[in-house]
Amino acid sequence: MKDLLRTADLSRADVELLLETSAEFAAKPLSANTALANRTVAIYMTKPSTRTRLASETAVAHLGGTPIFIRGDELQLGRGETLADTARIISGYASALIIRTFAQSDVDELGANTTIPVINGLTDDDHPTQLLADWVTIREQFGKDISGRKFTYVGDGNNMAHAWLTMGAIMGAHVVVATPGGKYAPDANALDVAKEIAKNSGATIEVVTDPEAAAKDASVLYTDVWMSMGDPENERSEKLKALSPFAVTPALMSLTTPDSIFMHCLPAHRGEEVEVDVIDGPRSVIWREAYHRRTTIQAILYHLVRGELSGH
Question: Residue 72 and residue 283: Cα distance in Å, rounded?
Fold first, then answer.
């Protein structure tokens, strides 16, 4: 496996290896601090970023490498140089490329034309590095035995919903996504991918429109912002109205298990998708989750550069 372009690229064995290494890097961040010695990693972002940028640059530094951060307007792409040509150039300088952008097709094209590993740091379709951070956090809370547990996402059927379904399928989990349906439902192709993986993993995949039924007896209640980057601003009022029944409130959390946790990939809009009493309450693990963005990107870089991931 050369690249991590989408969550579905990962096998169960890959995920287990990455979660184990992430936990090790959480305990000892500098335990592999010569893995990228005298090497560079390009970090190309056309979307603003807090966690992905900080996590990526810190992960490279902890592996002994030098991160090179590149904004979308800083390459010759703006003057017509192709993605394929850019990919070949970056391959000559860097040992890996982390990209955060809009179109999944751009990430796929870079992966097809580089000779170095390409890591998807977020697209409009998927967010694999976030889901690894989520599952390290889940493991810390519940251990490896997830039998009888339900993992629920409520809100917009966006890239996070897609990744949540896919990773849950890989892990053999009971995963539920609750959305208003219609144009706010998860992409049909993403759902099909998750269901196909679930055939082999034994996972239970559910997409529903009732947030209370989804939250009942859940071990995890997860949400994301309702207005993603790139969403048309003139659709804000319509979208917020449709999603308002899916806000994570104390009442919704009360339907979950006694040991349940609240998760959010951040940034959060308190008072919209989640109430203050939940996100800043005792069941929230958002800061640990955010911390693991570094440990998981560090693990991905470590194993991809060494050619130690097998792929799905």
Answer: 37
